[in-house]
Amino acid sequence: MTTLPAATVGAAYTDSTAWELLAELSDLGDRMPGHEGERAAAALIADALETAGCASVTETSFPIPGWWRESAALAVEHAGRQTTFDGSHELVALPGTPSGEVTGELVDVGYGLPEDFEGLDLSGCIAMASSLTPDDYGRWVHRSEKYDYAAESGAAGFLFYNHIEGALPPTGDVGRTNGPGAIPAVGLSKELGARLTRHCEASDDGGIDATLSVSARNEPATSTTVEAVLGPDTDEEVLYTAHLDAHDVGTGANDNGFGAALVVGVARVLASIDADLETRVRLVVFGAEETGLYGSYYWSHTHDLESVKCVLNVDGAGYSRNLEVYPHGADGMGEAFEEVSDAFDVPIRVEDGLRPHSDHWPFVQRGVAAGQGRSTADGSGRGWGHTHGDTFDKLDVRDLRELTVLCAAGVAKLAEADRAVAGRDPESVRDEAIEGGYDVGMRATGTWPWGDERPWPWADELSWSGHSLGQRPEGDWVRSTPWVDVVGSLSHAHRVLSIPTSKPT
Known about the structure:
Elements: H1 6-12, H2 17-27, H3 36-52, E1 55-78, E2 81-85, E3 91-93, E4 100-108, E5 126-130, H4 143-152, E6 157-161, E7 185-188, H5 190-202, E8 207-230, E9 237-243, H6 253-271, E10 280-286, H7 294-301, E11 308-314, E12 323-326, H8 333-344, E13 349-350, H9 361-364, E14 370-375, H10 397-414, H11 426-435, H12 438-445, E15 483-487, E16 496-500
Parallel strand pairs: 4-5, 5-6, 6-7, 9-10, 9-11, 11-14, 12-13
Antiparallel strand pairs: 1-2, 1-8, 3-7, 4-8, 8-10, 12-14, 15-16
């Protein structure tokens, strides 16, 4: 059994390296996928992992659809007056939105649930939906799902208003896997959303006239993933992951600078017991999570997943020091963290259910044992996440240090040679996703992985000796899933690639 020595734990509780890195990442400002700040973040993290004592530190680039914000404004007609809202505290364009100016009736569709759009003709209208999903709904309805329902109902524009007071307008991607979304879209503060809702309720026909204008650049770009290894050269490896990118409002301190700093903190702890690790540990900090999980999809498409014993992905961990782990049904992962909880006499919640919205998801859907680590927080939603308010000053070094120790202890246990960790049949994951209603949203947004082949911006790179995409060479079927595996030649000799293909569901 691999345990952290008392001296190692004590050193972790006084080590400021990861905290200082988090400050540096926050000071970069804009870490939007494909932007210069993201590349600078990758370089900082690579240097930190090398300094920590990791081996084989690499930076891998891959193409993505890039997006740059320019301007956004909403002009509203009410009570015989026109009011224009264009302040960053009032609204922000949603990444992946196309440029455009649209004029139409503003219609409040409430929560923006699937049933809210049933039989609704929004032709030429500007739809407005809350960021909130009711607690009793059974699943979280994602922003991009509400956006796609609005577009499919004929809306010419989309407004997405925050449900948390004082938290400013939310951002978040609404693009497609191969380019921008269909209609212009912005996020609004709760306060502006409440004002517009009040105006709609006061109107005779339930709507008011508005003009939405958005200017943005949608161009090809390149993102970067950083990785390194610790421990012995074994056939299997344990992945500990986070993402380094962030939205271009705020500083991405919590989402997910905190997670990236945790990877470095855990690397420093595990490097001190490197000789005691029984299985290779790979630290991976993905790029381009915020705009479509591109980094984790690219990594999982370019590696032999048979060598991955398990994955622990950290996203949303900066809210507190109260660790919460979602094993996604992987046998053995929850038990490892329950042992950590007992050893440190610290509560760690192990939760059931799927969380199909971060970098563990490309692994979970393919049957790999993969979980998400996060921290618990009071209230609904992401709080300051995805807003101008996601800044370094809201975080606590004590949270980072405690979670570093708990995660490092958990990863060390997962790396025990006799520790059995089992993934799941991808069909059972699919069935659970359907039972939880997640297929509804993923089908609506084109992200359901058990359907038709999806276009990726890097698909042209994934070929094999003249074989076309979707054509499986004999003898290279790595894992029986709804994905086709082919072999190719990419950077760093990562050889096994996976491309979705059409299969009945």
